[in-house]
Each structure stands twice: as structure tokens, then as C-alpha cells.
Amino acid sequence: IQMSEDKLQAAMDAISDFYFGESEDSGEQMFKKFANKHKELFDVTEGTDMEEHKLEFTDVYKEFQTLFETKIEELVEKSGASSEEFVEALKARSKTDEEVKMFLEIIVSVADYQNFLEMMVAHASTSHTMGM
Fold first, then answer.
1. What predicted TM-score, i.e. pTM, was given to this entire model?
2. How far apart are CA 131 and CA 68, in angstroms?
3. What are phi and psi of 119, to 5 degrees?
4. Distances, alpha carbon 127 to alpha carbons 55, 83, 104, 114, 116, in Å
5. Where are the alpha helices (DSSP H) in the chain?
6. Cβ–Cβ under 8 Å, residues 47 and 14
């Protein structure tokens, strides 16, 4: 099933609003709430052996991925398409459309484990220095 341009654009707009929005249920707020819940685990000091935390980090990462993917699927379905249609349409369009290619890269970057780890550690250290 081919996804219409209108549905694709509606889904992309909804996800962009979620990612970059300022509202209480934006992606940034969702990440902050999640990061606050787990900040003790990621509050690493100099000399901390990151390897010994690997399993715990992976579990928290999987929890965040599930939360994030559920939200994205919800936004896509609200635009009238299935997640499968959306992914296929993005893949096809990203070959010829720079905007779609960049959009896809942003979504993939959030799913990157190393990126997630760095964001969580940064959040924990910021919270620590700010006394949050």
C-alpha cells in the first residue's frame, strides 16, 4: 500500500512538532522526565568503569526506545497510516528528497545507543551541578 503525500507530510509534521515542540508532552520534555527518573544510574564520575554499568544502561536504553517508538507510532497512526507504510514511504522518498533524508537521520539518531548514553550522562551531570 502506497502512503499518500498528504499522510506522509502530516506524520512528518506531527513528529517534528513532537521533537522540537515546547509543550509539556514534547520529545524534549519526555526525555527530561525519563532522564530524571534514571539520573542516579548515569551520574558517572571520573574513573567510573562504564563497562560495569553496561547491562543496566542497556535495560534503560531499551525502556526509552519502547517509550519513544510507541509515541512515534501513535503520531503516525493519528495521521492515518500504519508504521509500516510510514517507514516504507520515508525510505522511498529519502532517496530523492533531502528534507526527508534529514528527517530520517534525526529519527535514527535518537535510536542510536551511543547518542542516548551521552545524552543521559550529560543530563545527569547537568542535574548534579544544578542541584536538581
1. 0.82
2. 27
3. -65, -40
4. 23, 35, 30, 20, 16
5. 5-20, 27-37, 39-42, 54-78, 83-94, 98-110, 113-130
6. no
For residue 84, count CB atoms less than 10 angstroms from its CB and return exposed for 0-12, middle for 13-18, buried for 19 or more: exposed
Q: Are 127 and 39 in contact (CB under 8 A)?
A: yes
Among 20, 13, 4, smallest CA distance to 100 is for 13
Provide the residue-wise pLDDT of the chain in tens; the chain has 132 residues: 578 889 999 999 999 999 888 888 899 899 999 999 999 888 876 566 666 667 889 999 999 999 999 999 999 999 998 999 999 999 999 999 999 999 988 888 888 998 999 999 999 888 755 544
Q: Are 87 and 11 in contact (CB under 8 A)?
A: no
Grid cell for residue 36: 530524571
